[in-house]
Each structure stands twice: as C-alpha cells, then as structure tokens.
Amino acid sequence: FIQGGGYTNPLLWLSDGWTAVNERSWDRPLYWSDDLQREFTLGGERELNPNAPVTHVSYYEADAFSRWAGARLPTEAEWESVARGSGRFKYPWGDAWDASRVNWSGNTDTMLPVKSFQANDRGYFDLAGSVTEWTSTDSAEENTGILKGGSRFDANVANFRLPVKRLEYLDYTGEDVGFRCARTVDEWPDE
Questions:
Q1: Strands lying side by side in the sheet with 144-148
Q2: What is the CA radius of gyration of the chain?
Q3: Which residue in 136, 170, 166 sits closest to 148, CA to CA?
Q4: pLDDT of 4-44, one tens digit each?
Q5: Three-class SS of 134-178
Q6: CB 113 within 8 A of CB 54
Q7: Whether this model's pTM surpasses 0.90
Q8: Which one, of 59, 68, 58, 48, lies nearest residue 6 by Cα?
Q9: What are phi and psi of 187, to 5 degrees?
Q10: Strand 144-148 relative to strand 132-138, pairing
C-alpha cells in the first residue's frame, strides 16, 4: 500500500481522510520509520513484525487500505456477529473469561503475531486482544468511529466482552489500534 502509492492516490481516501493526508503530510502510519523497517512503541523502538497486526493507523488509513485491497472495513454488527461465533458467546471463545486465549496486559505487553491464539468456532483469529479494531460504523458523536475487540493494553477484562465498543476520533492513531478487512459474501457458510 505504502510503496504502491496508497498515500498519494486520492481515489482511495474519504474526503476528510485525504484532507488529513495533505494537511499532516501522512505518508506512512504514525511512528513508523522512514525506511518502513521500525516503529516507535511505548516499549521503545522495535523492528516491524510483518506477521503482527498493523498499528498506529487512523480510521482513514484503515479505510483507504481496505479499498486498495479490494475490501472494506466490517460494520460493527458484522464484526460482532463473526466474533460471537455460532454460540453467540460473550467472548470469541465462549462465555467465561480465559486469559490463556487472549493477548492482554495480564499476560504480555508484547505484540504477538496474528494467529497466536486459537480461532473461534467460525475460524476467525484475534477478535479480542492485541489491537482494538476499527469498524465502518459511524458513532453518534461527530467525527468519531467505533472500535471493537479490546487491546493488549486493556487491564479490565470486561473490555474484551464482545458487546463493548470504544469510540475514538477518526484521525486517532495508537499502538493499540488496528483493523481487519472484510468482503461481502453472497451466502454465509453452513454452520
């Protein structure tokens, strides 16, 4: 996306996002090095791990990347439906808290690679912990978006319950914020 001109292609960006790109001279996620090899984190400078979730991205960047990839951000309802699994659980893995199933402040402050924990019963990974994820759903408050999933910095286990949402300004970036892409399917797979 970066090397392919994603930050210079206005066709990929929402108008407010394109304004932010130009006014703030965005050409990569905040805190990434010029050579795209390292990022500055709360724990100091670290090499970017190509197998870890992308962080330090605003809603606008997540949306632009998704468009570039031929996808989109999931709605809040889609994200939650997939995360709840076939049992409509409180957590992606079931109804009881299980610290061994999530990357959170109670077990590590290190960003772990994607798929470090078991998938939910629908085959989706990392729906709680590591990063909280942007959705495409607008919040009722102006210029804010809805994030889901809790991040590895959350100390309160209640933040990992699937109904919980977090609101942030659309231009917010943080080490605890990432995203996942979604695509529309004609038919939901058999359960």
A1: 165-169, 144-148, 132-138, 177-178
A2: 16
A3: 166
A4: 999 999 999 999 999 999 999 999 999 999 999 999 988 89
A5: EEEEECCCCCEEEEECCCCCCCCHHHHCCCCEEEEECCCCCCCEE
A6: no
A7: yes
A8: 68
A9: -145, 135
A10: antiparallel
